[in-house]
Amino acid sequence: MRAIVVTDQAAGTAGMTLVERPEPQPAINDVVVEVHASGYVPTEVEWSSTWSDRAGRDRAPSIPGHELAGVVTSLGYGTTGLSVGQRVFGLADWHRDGSLAEYVAIEARNLAPLPGGVDFSVGASLPISGLTAWQGLFDHGRLQAGQSVLAHGAAGAVGTMVTQLANEAGAYVIGTGRAADRDKVLDFGAQEFVDLETDALEDVGGIDLVFDLIGADIQKRSAALIKTGGTLVSVVGPIEARPAEGLAVDFVVEANRAQLSEIVQRVRDGRLRTNIGKVATLDDAVATFNSTERLKGKTIIRLRP
Ligand SMILES: NC(=O)c1ccc[n+]([C@@H]2O[C@H](COP(=O)([O-])OP(=O)(O)OC[C@H]3O[C@@H](n4cnc5c(N)ncnc54)[C@H](OP(=O)(O)O)[C@@H]3O)[C@@H](O)[C@H]2O)c1
User: Fold this and answer.
1) What is the pTM for the complete model shown?
2) Residues in domain Enoyl reductase (ER) (predicted)?
């Protein structure tokens, strides 16, 4: 099969190559999926899980890409709940070969059925951004209707999901970003926009839930805005600043079939819009990831038309 591999951590994305690799075999409780569309996170080459397995052994050359949508082609021993020919989407294990390949072996529990009317590119755009937003707001942030959410990076892949899901849950959403992001953030449903480059963040007042996608100084300033009993949720590494009278949680997104199904149902009935940026073929993928063009929204690699 054709796959993109990375072999040299120091080379980063520039070290990516499109090569021939053996097709993966399904292990216990796995399925093999013929990948139709794949998502890739630009920072993957910096993650230790791209370079080692769970026992810490070197696994290069490794295949990046952790979001996928495709069709099940075979089942491993003991696999239940999915069948050959089924359309699926989901989140591939951080420590295994991923979805920038024509086929991927993946635990069935990491996948959910992809409804017939939902395009593979849409399916591949949802797992990381949708699950991160869902888990941050509801599992870790325990968001309630009527609360306020400060959604940083609200024009980005995760931020647009945070904004929409928080809005649907009855929260008051203040989205942040750069000046050029204002219309997009308001269009995705934020009630207010804060331009982090020129507006005073401190003017937003007391916040119940800060969803941090930026970190550093923005995180420190945001922690000070959290009301008593409120929560700072971050996905950009260990917490650097804690709210005085609230909780702080940082987490890495996990696969969850029930949540994937909730998310795709919302896409199907129009409650949730995706934020897909560039769509490229596998042949163009390495050039796309190495482009000097600033990629906005979720980049999707389409492996089959
Ligand atoms: N721990 C986890 O499980 C997890 C899961 C998903 C994502 N993440 C992390 O979360 C972050 C966001 O992911 P994403 O996919 O949503 O990225 P993205 O699509 O690039 O969105 C980030 C948004 O934040 C904006 N932004 C960044 N720094 C800013 C600043 N200083 N001032 C104003 N706006 C700023 C970006 O604007 P520009 O494009 O103009 O810079 C962009 O609109 C990444 O670091 C990613 O690795 C972690």
Assistant:
1) 0.97
2) 12-301
